[in-house]
Design brief:
The protein is an alpha/beta fold. Helix content is 35%, strand content 25%. The model is unreliable at 43-50 (pLDDT under 50). The chain binds guanosine-5'-diphosphate (GDP). Guanosine-5'-diphosphate (GDP) binds at residues 79, 81-87, 131, 183-184, 186-187, 219-221.
Amino acid sequence: AEKMKQKSADIIKKLFLKGQIVTLNTELSYEEAENIAVEYDILCEMEEKVDVIAELVQDSEVDEEKDLEPRPPVVVVMGHVDHGKTSILDAIRNTNVTSREHGGITQSIGAYQVSVKVNGESRVVTFLDTPGHEAFTAMRMRGAQSTDIAVLVVAADDGIKPQTIEAINHAKAANTEIIVAINKIDKPTANVEKVKQELMAYDLVAEDYGGSTICCPVSAKTGEGLENLLENIALQADVLELKANPNRKAYGVVIEAELDKGRGSVARLLVQKGTLHVGDVVAVGSAFGKVRAMIDDKGRRIKKATPSMPVEILGLNSVPNAGEIFQVKDNEKEAKAYADTFVSEGKQRMVEESRKKVSLDALFDQIKAGELKDLPIVLKADVQGSVEAVRDSLQKIQNEEVQVKVIHSGVGAINESDINLAIASNAIVIGFDVKPDATAKDIAERENVDVRLYNIIYKAIEDIELAMKGMLAPVF
Ligand code: GDP
């Protein structure tokens, strides 16, 4: 009742009239609540219903505690520009024994793994090799919680800077553990203690100052302290008790993806749960396919990838987006169904967004909000002479903020392809002495495309000019 801004008594009465006896304390199922909401026509306000995609990408498997095994931590490196993020990532990668064993021929797959000895035991750490909080936050915006530990790089000769603070806030917002790497200690002007003091203002209190923030003095240039940094990351991973079930269908996130001329769709994934095998069927956003080949961060062909491992896979039918969740499905049919739902829901979402955009009635608000620079128009008319006359007059319309652009014009009835073009380009459709055919009419109505029909040129011009000034009288 609260959400619908209705009196609870009214809802109780409504249900009572339907023969359902309820009190204020009766719990209704989601469906029942939904039915009531529909009657009050406020369904679109219930976010839960709209976000089918959020539900779709959710992991359908539930892992039991007993099946969980320790997994390597996934680490992102953040900090102010020029403080040495890239240098640290490179230095760690290059000093790593494994990559040297393989001749150092490493290719970037968006992340890499290194091993480190802790108390005589070999341990693995995964680094995302795109530094910076933008990439990290982009992934998070898609709902992927991909990193466990953020290494905050602060140059010892420069101290805390604006992007350092940004990085701290991004890491905190994501509940990511922060380990500080105080870099450039080889420089004569380096002042480690000063950095530690500055950090306190951001609730990052070093251990020797009585706090719990791990601060590792390092030099990416000389390599000093890097081993110690890795050890501390591994130890912190123990504290966090990072675990995953390796014996289940793989689930994870796309780090990056691209179309390669020779190899087709190349997707770099971070496996978060389960084990990914060659031959598995993967669904990721609107892309899907059977994993044809898998390559690790050392450029080796591999057959399987376990939790926290980055891999490059070939075999998807299109290029997925970075940050998208991937899941292994039982078969191609299931994966295709997933992709189809994703496409239709994604389109639905776009329609909902464009509903606000493609309409003469809302034009002025959007111009004011600075959302619109061009007004794209699809124009159809009965004869070529009219097409040209109307197009020329329309093209001349402009004011300081917005310019009319006829993106397509032609002779004949408004058809499906015109409407589809309008949907894709967020355009308004104008018909001069023509009407939409039945299919076009259906789609336009369903997708809320603004179709305007005229038979006098000046009327069309006037409407658009008025709309641009926010003076168009609404049509009822
Ligand atoms: P990013 O912008 O944070 O990725 O910083 P870079 O890794 O590109 O480093 C910026 C500059 O600092 C480069 O000229 C590096 O050579 C230099 N640099 C990075 N780490 C060190 C270090 O430990 N010591 C010294 N002396 N210079 C460093």
